Amino acid sequence: MNVLLDALHPYPFEKLRALFADLKPASSQAHIALSIGEPRHASPPFVLETLAANLPLLANYPATRGEAVLRETIADWLQRRFHLQSVNAECEVLPVNGTREALFAFAQAVVTAGPGAAVVSPNPFYQIYEGAALLAGAQPEFVNATASSGHLPDFAAVPASVWERCQLLYICTPGNPSGAVMSIEQLQTLVALAEHHDFIIASDECYSEIYSDEANPPPGLLQACALMGNDRFKRCVVFHSLSKRSNLPGLRSGFVAGDATVLAEFLRYRTYHGCAMPLHHQHASVAAWNDEEHVRANRAQYRQKFDAVLPILQGHLQMERPDAGFYLWPETPVADTEFARQLYQQAHVTVVPGSFLARETAAGNPGSRRVRMALVASLEDCVEAAERMVRVIEQL
Predict the structure, then answer these.
(1) pLDDT of 289-301, one tens digit each?
(2) What letter does residue 373 receive in the DSSP assignment?
(3) Does pTM surpass 0.90?
(4) Residue 349 forms beta bridges with which residues?
(5) Fewest Cβ atoms nearer than 10 Å: which of 98, 242, 250, 330?
């Protein structure tokens, strides 16, 4: 077996099951899960209809690089959404089966293993970044994101010696779990660092279409590149998905876009990897990327939930309304693991302890004394969960 597998940490949800193993929640209350970031709003009917209409295409093998119509649709969407002059659908776009597998596979393709190899990522982080680094034969280097840095990674604190070893930088904007958004200027600072130290930036932007202010959508890495004259996105790639944007997590449809040289090598890797998107999924994806009405309606539902839940919890938990995403990231009155246990046992509500989403550093664990709450359940269930939570807090 690959000995590097032994370096992988248990996934947060494995830890959560172990944390609750000795508990029996109150049987009178239905379970409300705010732990997993799985969208539960209805999938767009027109996408499902397109999917069904194209089922006969199961008789055909799909190409790894995807159908031209899908790549062109994605390129057009990127140009509209991020005000880009041009995106070359032939070489700057690659459809993938959801961003999770692509974020992992990307490190395997671009990292050269060795004692000095480093992959830098935020802390807290999406655990795929760490696993991808470890199995690529690199050392994960974590950059803490705390309240003092606006819940964004404090990249200014990273020593030059780390940047010199860095081959790949993962960023997540809007951030998971905080929802914090990196500005154009912050993104451009990282692009300049990548050019100076010769590393690649992989920007996980899967929450980019869930935001509070319709007039101010979060900027993206390719947008930052173009505004500084890097209109061919050198050393930069972005990852987008239909899972959160269009409530289609089971479709496993996303894309990678950016530096054509990097994507050519990633395509070569994926050709051997055997991960082409099924053709009926591709046609359904075209329908989804071409429509914004369902996305605006989706954002409105999340705003409604934040509007309902925050007044209930404020005054009981310290938190801010996030700029984007569908998570709350409150401070807890007791240890985050104990708070999660009390919620589960007394209120039958599950949340993820923040310490499960981060790693210990010299400055401590930046997820400690926080929990991640995903407002993915129905409005009624989110309100009910918040009310139960207040009752638990009042007893602590």
Answers:
(1) 999 999 999 999 9
(2) E
(3) yes
(4) 32
(5) 250
Distances (CA, A) of 89 to 2, 75, 92: 37, 6, 6
Written in H, E and C, the secondary structure of 276-291 is CCCHHHHHHHHHHHCC
CATH 3.40.640.10 spans which residues of the chain? 60-291
What is the distance between the alpha carbons of residues 255 and 247, in angstroms, rounded to a whole number?
16
- Tens of pLDDT, residues 319-374: 999 999 999 999 999 999 999 999 999 999 999 999 999 999 999 999 999 999 99
Question: Looking only at Cα atoms, what is the longest distance across the chain?
Answer: 60
166 alpha-carbon distance from chain centroid: 21
Does residue 174 have a cis peptide bond before it, meaning omega lies within 30 degrees of 0?
Answer: yes
User: 3-42+294-395: which CATH architecture?
Assistant: Alpha-Beta Complex (3.90)
DSSP notation for 197-259: HT-EEEEE-TTTT-BS-TT-PPP-HHHHHHHTT-TT-TTEEEEEEHHHHTT-GGG--EEEEE-
Domain with CATH 3.90.1150.10 in the chain: 3-42+294-395
Place of tokens 């999770």: 100
